[in-house]
Amino acid sequence: MKEREQVQEWLEEVLPKVSKPLRYLGNEYNAVKKDWQAVKLRFLFAFPDVYEVGMSHLGLQIIYGLVNEQSDYLMERVFAPWTDFEAELRARGIPLFSLESATPIAQFDCIGFTLQYEMSYSNILNMLDLGRIPLLAKERGDEFPIIMAGGPCAYNPEPLAEFIDFFVLGEGEEIILEIGAVMAAHRAKRQGKQEKAVLLKELAQIPGIYVPAFYEARYDQNGKFAGLKANEPEIPSRVVKRVVKDLDQANFPLKPIVPYLEIVHDRMMLEVLRGCTRGCRFCQAGVLYRPVRERSQKLLVEQAEQLAQNTGHNEISLTSLSTSDYSCVEPLLRDILNRFEGRNIGVSLPSLRVDSFSVNLAKEVQRVRKTGLTFAPEAGTQRLRDVINKNVTEEDLLQVTEAVFREGWTQIKLYFMLGLPTETYADLDGIADLASKVLRRGKEILREIGSKKAPSITVSVSSFVPKPHTPFQWEAQDSLATLQEKQSYLRTKIRERGIVYNYHDAEISFLEAVFAKGDRRLGKVLLEAWRRGCRFDGWSEHFRYESWREAFREVGLIPEEIANVPLDPADPLPWDHLDSGVRKEYLLKERERAYQGQTTGDCRLTTCSVCGICQDLKVRLLLRKGEA
Q1: How far is C-alpha 170 from the chain's CA centre?
Q2: Rounded distance, CA 259 to CA 266, Å?
Q3: What are the residue ranges of helices labelled H in 229-323?
Q4: Which residues, in sequence order, are CB contacts of 329 under 8 Å at separation 6+?
Q5: Chain centroid to CA 619: how far?
Q6: How far is CA 211 from the centre of its chain?
Q7: pLDDT, tens only, 453-469
Q8: Which of 5, 21, 188, 232 is deepest in the core (most CB within 10 A)?
Q9: DSSP alpha helices (H): ranges in 328-373?
């Protein structure tokens, strides 16, 4: 209690000195504060990025709400402190603390990090250090919190294996209460204390839990990864992801925390469906979140009403990987708009499919307010779109953009990827040509309808990163020099007035590929890079590429041999022991079809593609089409 009071006094002094002090204040509307002495287990949700990013994450709100509904548990939050706040913490000897109660993070029973992005890994180490918690799992005794992690990057957690006690594979709301029950029972037997080694063995029996300490990574005489094996008989050889079978029965936060300051997604979030079966071959999320499961329209409308009452936001975002694929999307959109239009509450949609169906949705959305629209052709030529299984044509894009220009839109963003497998410079020319055609079509139509506004096209290009559990997981990323050369080449091609060209830092994408494809040896690189000051690596103003290069040299690893070398399908992968539910045979078949330029249809609309998810995990596609 004394430490908490000291932190509160210190905050009053230091907050006026740092940027965005509301990041650290807590006390937001709908935040939950519980009596520490009245609960059996204390969780901390740790997001390894700034508050504005973390508070935009729906998963945080879901887990936070679910845990705090339990009378015996509490969950508080902590985010990565910005560099100015970190400097104040270190200068004054104040440990990193939670928002809700200003409790030092080392006093929690369990700290859970969400792994959304490989370039946030250095922030995890920094947050542990700021909390005075030993970084290496083997150096943390029984008196320290158990450190867990989950999220999409947990499907190749090996670079973090030395630092995290256990990983959660799959959807957190399906498993978090089971974790709590095991931990609470363990502590009850020991009068509130824990025996870490025993507890981890108990946790490893829960389906979906991976404890790296119980698995041994092997390497051949040349240092090449040779597989990973459980080192005790009761430890499962494969860990299978957990899946929520019915979203209508799943917990959803109807009283989400409302931030004081503007965050990245400052709106109500209504999750209409989970999963995607479009089958883009570069897309990890499309594999990890299978199968497709939809919420019923009736339930979504009820949730929207409660969210509006409990938050005060003036916009509802219909969230999913592909919202326009929700089978009841048009009636749902009309229903919500009819209910909320009079209250000046609008609806937003994420990136739209390039088809005429999306235009009808966009027309409905603009009834309250109009914003820019984003479409993702991904590649500049039909050949390459077939390789990645995008299943849209140039004519689809031109038709949909023509329709939105006729409806009065003037700002369109086009999203592409650079460095995709089999890409040539003709494909890059196609990006510039496609953007130019959209701009010209926009000028013609706006002139025709008498608009005095000029169209604005933003071309946003990211670099392809091979991701685990995708058909392209075996591919090499283009070398850093090649990626930078292609970025420069595209800049020379996109010079037309009215087109803005943005691209992602290739050095960041290079390191992202290294950590996406790498094994446990990268833990030493990560530790050395953090010691050299690396943190907030996803933020260009703080990214220290040379410090990372020095860390690789110090450890004796060559990052190009990880990112830029293709993997042999016959060789073991660092994530082979982690089961996403999609069969490796299916991924290999899709890879072969990519090189043959063959597309694969959406299994909701055509035949089953035999990916394995429905049969092996016994979770069927759950569509609500036709339900009221």
Answers
A1: 13
A2: 8
A3: 285-288, 297-311
A4: 272, 318, 323, 361
A5: 23
A6: 22
A7: 999 999 999 999 999 99
A8: 21
A9: 329-340, 356-365
The pLDDT-based confidence of 371 (bands split at 50, 70, 90) is low
At 244, the amino acid letter reads: V
Which residue carries 């994450």 as its tokens? 57
Q: Which residues pair with 578 in a beta bridge?
A: 239
pLDDT of residue 621: 87
For the cut 90, the answer to whether the pLDDT of residue 368 exceeds it is: no
- Contact status, residue 457 vs residue 414, Cβ threshold 8 Å: yes
Strands laid side by side in the 346-348 sheet: 268-271, 315-319, 346-348
Provide the pLDDT confidence category of residue 358 given band limits of 50, 70 and 90.
low
Q: Name the DSSP class of 109.
A: S
CA angle 317, 470, 172 (to 5 degrees): 50
Q: Going by DSSP bridges, is the β-strand pair 293-294/411-418 parallel, antiparallel, or unpaired? A: unpaired
Q: What angle do CA 241, 247, 250 make, to 5 degrees?
A: 85
Alpha-carbon span 393 to 376, nearest angstrom: 12
Give the model confidence (pLDDT) of 516-535 as tens digits: 999 999 999 999 999 999 99
* 207 to 20, 113, 176, 204: CA distances (angstroms): 41, 19, 12, 8
Q: How many CA atoms lie within 13 A of 534 on its CB side?
A: 28
CA–centroid distance for 26 within its chain? 24
Whether this prediction's pTM lies above 0.85 is answered by yes
Instruction: Kindly state the DSSP code that residue 408 receives in the 8-state scheme.
Output: T
On the question of pLDDT at 600 being above 60, the answer is yes
CATH class of 247-522+589-617: alpha beta
DSSP classification of residue 145: P
> Is 74 within 8 Å of 64 (Cβ atoms)?
no
pLDDT higher for 299 or 350?
299
Strand partners, 167: 149, 210
Q: In whole angstroms, give the CA distance from residue 310 to residue 282.
A: 38
- Per-residue tokens: 588: 């290999």
DSSP-assigned letter for residue 378: E
Strands 73-79, 110-114: parallel, antiparallel or unpaired by DSSP?
unpaired
Bridge partners for 266 per DSSP: none
d(CA 356, CA 42): 50
Closest CA to 464 of 454, 476, 451: 476
- Both structure tokens of 144: 């320290």
Q: Give the Cβ contact number of residue 421 at 10 Å.
A: 22
- Residue with the bigger pLDDT between 221 and 203: it is 203
Q: In which band, very low, low, confident or very high, does the pLDDT at 223 lie, cut at 50, 70 and 90?
A: confident
Q: Sketch the domain layout of the chain as residue ranges.
A: 2-240, 247-522+589-617
